[in-house]
Design goal:
The chain has nine helices and eight strands. By secondary structure, it is of the alpha+beta class.
Length: 332
């Protein structure tokens, strides 16, 4: 009973109410067969969670955890050397793995995730399993917790922290440093303005065809994807995270009832709470997260996992269509 009350209390401080479904509203987003999806859209202007599905389901973080790595580093260092500013830039704009690994090692690896989970009140986030301490991409997180991370940056973090991180996410490049095209999901399915952090894991170490940027005059508009990876590889070290505004609602995280968490998925992260298994190990994952709309009105998070062997081209096509539908559902 005590544990149940604690979990319920932890789930409350996010929103003011859940927007009711409307019979005349947009259709429910269609998740493809065999795909696991957790998503959430939060309207900062109304204080409502306007679209949601499996918001407590834990996914393998892939590169989305880089936002937490950046927050932890910036909040523990008042003066940032130029070399670290350069590392933050490539880690956040083009999702550079070596930069993330450098901060991960210096920050104590999984202790970074433990600190952020406690500070931000994340209920579904946990560091990688104890036998894989160097794999930052094996961090567990949920759609709801990523909404909390963005709300923290928008409403509570020091300006020097939020402006640096969100400034880079507003300038996310089309081509990741590993050659993959990271303009899937929100960047191709939702009109600007947006600020995004993407994540992918399980598609091999390098694309067979490197990303070719679209015209710089029209970023974020639908275009051809140039990376038809043929099949998903089982997540190995490099593929899974390890290589060599609108008016803010009252209160820091004003409370809103959200869907109840499963008993085995909502334990608050704490030292020693890392899961014994990696979420969706052996399945490729693809995530698109960020801020959309004028004055950052909406926070949108879409996390997905695909059947083993799903190609990059098929995955990016499916998540882009789903992101378009989730956006339409949550912002109508």
């Amino acid at each position: 009973m005590i544990r149940s009350l604690a979990l319920l209390t932890a789930a409350l401080p996010l929103l003011a109410s859940v927007a009711p479904a409307s019979a005349a509203g947009p259709a429910v987003p269609r998740v493809p067969a065999g795909v696991a999806a957790g998503y959430a859209v939060f309207d900062r202007q109304t204080g409502r969670l306007t679209a949601h599905r499996d918001v407590h389901r834990r996914f393998r973080s892939a590169s989305v955890v880089k936002i937490m790595i950046a927050i932890d580093y910036l909040e523990s260092h008042r003066k940032i050397p130029d070399r670290d500013l350069a590392l933050l830039k490539v880690m956040l704009r083009v999702s550079d793995d070596d930069a993330a690994s450098a901060f991960w090692d210096r920050g104590g690896k999984g202790k970074i995730v433990e600190r952020i989970a406690r500070r931000l009140g994340l209920t579904d986030t946990a560091p990688p399993p104890a036998d894989r301490p160097g794999f930052w991409g094996y961090t567990s997180l949920s759609a709801l917790d990523m909404v909390r991370v963005y709300r923290y940056l928008l409403d509570r973090a020091e300006p020097r922290v939020s402006e640096l991180i969100l400034g880079h996410l507003r300038r996310a490049g089309q081509c990741g440093s590993d050659g993959f095209d990271q303009y899937f999901g929100i960047p191709r399915g939702v009109a600007r303005p947006w600020a995004v952090k993407q994540g992918w894991s399980g598609y091999g170490l390098r694309p067979p065809v490197r990303c070719r940027p679209s015209s710089p005059s029209s970023p974020g508009t639908p275009g051809s994807l140039s990376l038809p990876v043929s099949s998903a590889a089982a997540p190995g070290p490099a593929a899974s995270g390890r290589t060599a505004g609108a008016p803010a609602p009252a209160g820091p995280l004003s409370g809103v009832p959200v869907p109840a968490a499963p008993a085995d998925a909502a334990a608050p992260a704490a030292p020693g709470s890392a899961p014994r298994v990696v979420p969706d190990y052996g399945r490729p994952v693809l995530h698109t997260t960020g801020l959309v709309g004028p004055k950052d009105r909406w926070i949108m998070v879409l996390l997905t996992a695909y059947p083993a062997g799903t190609s990059w081209q098929r995955s990016t096509s499916q998540i882009t269509r789903l992101a378009r539908e989730v956006h339409r559902s949550g912002t109508a």
